[in-house]
Automatic annotation (TrEMBL):
The chain crosses the membrane at residues 6-25, 133-159, 195-218. This is Zinc metallopeptidase. InterPro entries: Zn_peptidase_2 (IPR007395). Keywords: Membrane, Transmembrane, Transmembrane helix. It comes from Eiseniibacteriota bacterium. The lineage of its organism: Bacteria, Candidatus Eiseniibacteriota.
Amino acid sequence: MFFDPMYLLIVGPAIVLSMITQFWVQSAFKKFSRVPVAAGLSGAEVAERIVAQAGLGVRVERVQGFLSDHYDPTHRVLRLSPNVFDRRSISSVGVAAHDAGHALQHAKNYLPLQWRSALVPITKVGTTLAWPLLLIGFLLGSLGLVKVGIIFFSAAVLFQVVTLPVEFDASRRAVAVIQQMGLVTTTEVAGVKKVLTAAAMTYVAAAAASIAQLLYFLMRAGLLGGRRD
């Protein structure tokens, strides 16, 4: 299991894709971080304007980390990293608008977001238990433990898959709202789209890697393709 060429064959391409997309998003973010927006608004100001116009009552706060930006639906807080919160660039505006898009989804009861929120506690348990169960199951040759581990791992895969429409829709809402509100110029919108497309591809790569790992475990357990050794 530890040095299985089949693992590299199935999961390897997805891992390479993940590495490429991580480089892509960091490169795009840094590139457009150097391009100021004509409106002179910071990421925090853009997010505040979007949620205020929609009457959402969402707070905008600073959080530490690089691209650690996220919307917390439980506490109705939009947290932005320093590079997004403080800066007045195409990157900061795009990322801030994207996370404000999640707040808009929450307000509109966007179904995939509700599914993802419902999966969070299940996913936390699944990711904690899946790997130990799979490792012990394969080492002991216990198909029962392996099957339970696969079930838990499947919850994490499902979360990754459900995340895709949530992220793409948030970006779509972000681009639409900043255009409608006149927060960016036509030229700046093109830059925003490039940053958000790069960010979206990281979620695609993560989902692909999770699905590839699940397929590998199913094959190793003899539940797919008939292989079990």
